[in-house]
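Troubleshooting log. The previous structure file for this entry was overwritten by mistake, so regenerating from the original sequence record. Sequence copied from the archived sheet and checked twice against the printout by T.R.
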Amino acid sequence: MNWTKLPDNWWCNEFGDQIHRYEILDDEDRCLVEYHLHHAGERLPWSGKAHTLAEAQRQLEQSRALMA
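Regenerated output below.
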């Protein structure tokens, strides 16, 4: 699967799946990074969440393989 990085911390693959990187503050004002996943064609805004880009890509690739 090929991932293309687009502006503003956003990745997309050839199937239209998307990953968006967010920085959020926890209760103690520490910055945490989350990657929100979206499967192409799903009606829900997000299909899942991960803590690293590699984990997010792996989750989408595995679910795509299961659909095949």
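Helices lie at 53-67. Archived copy saved in two places this time.
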